[in-house]
Write a structure and sequence with these properties.
Strand content: 5-15%
Helix content: 55-70%
Distance between the termini: 80 Å
Shape: rod-shaped
Order of helices and strands: EEEHEHHHHHHHHH
Structural class: alpha+beta
Number of helices: 10
Length: about 210
Amino acid sequence: MTVTSVKPGADADLLKIGLSDGSLFFIRLSYLPQTIKGRVSLYISHSSCSNLDLTDEDYRSLSFASECVRVERKALQLINRAEQTRLGLMQKLLHKQYSEQTVKIVLDRLEALLFVDDKRFAKAWIQSRLRHSGSKSASQLVYGLLKRGVDSRIATVLVRELYPPELEKKAIQQFIEKKHLLLDHLTPFELKQILLKAQFSKRAILLYLEDR
């Protein structure tokens, strides 16, 4: 098997490879092992040289790089529709029957290029939840991020940053109105227990009770 043609793609890292069996496919140099990457680069720089002979290992490397490009394109399609977490994107790609090794390598590259950013996803998700459901507790927001694959430390830090107790206190009032709680019929202890059960933070509950 030999490489018979190499044509540039949409960027310097993307190439269209033609083989002696008539097959054509795209690869990224980034997804090739250094050994064959150097040989392909040399082939490109000496376009008048003869065809590039491939070992079986070379062919497997080119096939793997081609699969990475296909996975990358599918990942970018999903990202263009909506912000994604790494874990959520991985699950969707694995569901498409792509290999786990390929998906991990592609996601490493997309993370390095900031196409995938769990912090950015978490910020957007928190802000969206607060716009559409103001009665959420901080714990519910953290749990929602964990379910979507965001690291617990990132989730906790960003919820604290974007949803301080002062804002959560307002959510408590909305929760009380939504549940039609009659405050005159509840002792502070009873109200506190209801709010704790609804997963509001102790600090936000204390602020609310102090203002009653």
